[in-house]
Amino acid sequence: MTSITTTCRDISELLPAAQTACRLLFQECFKAGIKNIFITETYRSQERQIYLYAQGRTRPGQIVTWTLDSNHKSRLAWDIAVGPPQSLYDVTTLNRVGTIAHKLGITWGGDWVGSIDRPHFEVKVNWKIPAGYKLEGKLNVPTNSKGQVQLIVEGKPKEEIKVTQTWNPESPTMKTEAENFITQAVKDGIIQESHLKDLQNGVMTTDRLIGLYITIQQRRN
């Protein structure tokens, strides 16, 4: 049994309609250029809801929920947050996501009166994908601030690949960007430090750099 202090961020714990709605929302956000959002909670047991409701009331801390009857426990709701460089609950970004949710028939907590909850999204059990939309490919939905939303569609360029055949080792900006990315992957234990040294020593080929970038992204998934 999951502890009441443990947050569930697994989309598969949602009901099918909510899983699809959540994925569609992240897909459409990606297409709109919003890639630094991530899941902070999906399913929440009634016991955990009671525990969270007590915070700021009978337990120390700030109030984090206004109800004992959340759709999180019905497996029909999910919360998100915003990754760097924005703040965790950047209002501008959450408002943009909320606007996209409107188009998809997804309820957004930012529309609620009296208890605005911008990170919160939910659907009814009978929600369907609106006309004109569909899930288009392999989607990566991050569950922490280090990830980025990614969409890979067969037959189309992989939009998440920033280092392309135009890689130029003589370009300071491009070299710095690539070096920072690989440095972080080394710190995260995803790749060996020898790759970073090869880049710094100027022996990293364009093809190898692209392959390395793809490998890192796949392992983050």
From TrEMBL:
SUPFAM superfamilies according to UniProt: Hedgehog/DD-peptidase
One function term, GO molecular function aspect: peptidase activity
InterPro entries from the UniProt entry: Peptidase_M15C (IPR039561), Zn_M74/Hedgehog-like (IPR009045)
All residue ranges annotated as the Peptidase M15C domain in the record: 69-123
Pfam families given in the database record: Peptidase_M15_4
Superkingdom of origin: Bacteria
Entry protein name: M15 family metallopeptidase
UniProt organism field: Lysinibacillus pakistanensis
